[in-house]
Design a protein that fits this description.
Layout lengths: L1 H20 L2 H5 L8 E3 L5 E3 L1 H12 L6 E9 L4 E12 L2 E13 L5 E8 L15
Parallel strand pairs: 1-6
Antiparallel strand pairs: 1-2, 3-4, 4-5, 5-6
Length: 134
């Protein structure tokens, strides 16, 4: 079992390296060929490896000064991993940071089968009074 977890660990790290470098071919090697699902922070769904990579290419082509910084990788099991990271890119020439958590699910071979993105919202106003910690 330790070998399976180690192999799966490498897939997540490789995904992050490839994403940061806009290495779309390398990124594709980390994912299942069929059945990939990406659910995003706006409850948006992308199904399939090629549609997901096309989505990322399109989004990243619009992000000047993009930088990905990983704070923590938590391998829960051979199938489940959480990555806390910050994506930074320029808005009106000002670097703006977006902290988030990505949940990865892997298949039996250790390849990524589901990507779920959860974003924090710095400076946003909570929907209920008292919803912000002091």
């Amino acid at each position: 079992m330790a070998e399976v977890i180690a192999a799966a660990d490498n897939v997540i790290e490789r995904y992050l390296r490839c994403l940061s470098a806009n290495d779309w071919d390398g990124l594709a090697t980390t994912m299942v060929d069929k059945g990939l699902v990406r659910d995003g922070p706006f409850c948006d769904i992308v199904e399939g490896k090629q549609p997901y990579i096309a989505f990322l290419r399109d989004v990243f082509s619009r992000l000047p000064g993009y930088r990905l910084t990983v704070q923590r990788i938590s391998h829960v099991s051979e199938r489940l991993c959480y990555v806390e990271l910050t994506e930074t890119f320029e808005i009106n020439a000002v670097p703006t940071a977006y902290p988030e958590c990505i949940r990865f699910e892997r298949n039996n071979a250790g390849l990524i089968s589901r990507v779920s993105v959860y974003m924090k919202r710095p400076g946003d106003v909570p929907g209920v009074e008292g919803g912000r910690a002091l």
